Amino acid sequence: MIYLDNAATTFPKPNRVIRAVEKCLSEYCGNPGRGSHPLSLIAAEQIYNCREALSSFLGVEAPERILFTQNTTHALNLAIKGLLKRGDHVLISELEHNAVRRPLYRLGAENAVTFDTFPVVGLPEEAILQGIARRIRPQTKAVICTHASNICSITLPVAAIGAFCHRCGLKLIVDAAQSAGILPIHLKKMQIDALALPGHKSLYGIQGCGALALGEHFLPSPLWEGGSGVDSRSEEMPTEPPERYEAGTLPTPAIVGLLEGVRSLQEEAPDSIAKREKELFVAAKERLLSIPGIHVYAPRQEGAVLLFNKQGVPSVAIGKQLADRGICVRAGLHCAPLAHQALKTPPDGAVRISFGRYNSLADLDALWKALRAE
Ligand code: PLP
Question: 20 to 30 A Cα–Cα from 359, which one of 30, 45, 256, 276?
């Protein structure tokens, strides 16, 4: 199998992540924060270690401002629904995933919140900021945008958007599903108020947890109520993060995997992984464009995600043909219909290949041969 679907979830995971998860499950996986016995205490300590590792990796003020969620989607729902009130207006980029679009449609259907999209495809930073500025209304409360697109290699100038938002008194919520572990992130320096991320993509944890990182002045309303392991007599959730937001048992094995994934990135230098993924992008683009009828979308910016189509062949058929040859890619609409409209793909979408730290040029040669053979 050749795996080129790392934007969906990275595979394989580093051996050290697998070993850490196995050790957790076999040696100490008590319920964290729910007992004073050693198995609960070790689990709680590991969870704190992960908060600490993530907060220093992401430039977050304190470990307590890392909130664990089930995935990026839950983190975005918490930031969006926990911030917005009836009558608010927000701005989102034209590249947003359904994890941003659907919560806003739901709030819109309840007549609570309105939103507008701002363009980014093919635009320099200044024009993106102007597009945001033009759409601000008196009711605008926040900008919500992805850091890196999940369907192509376009990234957004998040630090410039952060500085702009704060000059205008707007909050900035960032979807880092495709950037955490690949692009540098520093919440404080980039003036990000809330950042949602997955454990299972380029941070190399396993599926089962994500996180919402809170900036200094961002405390959304909690979305869930329940046991938190502290202040059990109270009828309300605790007042401070993280317990205020983490109702119910946390996924300790997934959080331990994420901790080991972050440590592995810190030791193996994320810069060099990102550089290699860009090299793979360039090499893949060259190979694909040598095949007649292939069109690569947004080809100028290099990144970990490349989107293409072959003239006259539905994307899903290409995906299936590649799968039959043992090559894993994703075809179709990728949960991001707004982004497909912005890139002008056909209605049935396009084929996405996405790189991870274990891909090599040999994988791209195999892809090229398989596509030429069709
Ligand atoms: N946002 C973007 C840009 C994504 O690519 C994805 C998933 O691929 C998500 C959000 C949702 O992530 P998760 O599946 O971790 O909820």
Answer: 256
- Could you give the CA distance from residue 65 to residue 96 in angstroms, rounded to a whole number? 25
Please choose from 155, 195, 335 the residue to mutate so as to test ligand 1's pocket, defined by most ligand atoms within 8 A of CB.
335
Lowest mean pLDDT among 87-101, 124-138, 225-239, 345-359: 225-239
Atom of ligand 1 nearest to the CA of 74: 16
Closest CA to 184 of 270, 117, 285: 270
Half-sphere exposure of 83 (CA within 13 A, CB side): 26
What Cα–Cα distance (Å) separates residue 67 from each residue in 132, 242, 328? 29, 5, 32
Is residue 374 predicted with pLDDT exceeding 70?
no
3-class DSSP state of 370: helix
Helix (H, G, I), strand (E, B) or coil at 322: helix
Q: Which of 139, 195, 191 is nearest to 167 (CA)?
A: 191
Tell me if 265 CB under 6 Å of ligand 1: no
Q: pLDDT digits over 318-362, tens only?
A: 999 999 999 999 999 888 889 999 999 999 999 999 999 999 999
**How buried is 126 (Cβ within 10 angstroms: 0-12 exposed, 13-18 middle, 19+ buried)?**
exposed
- Residue written as tokens 């890196």? 148
Q: Which of 314, 306, 309, 305 lies closest to 292 in space, CA to CA? A: 309
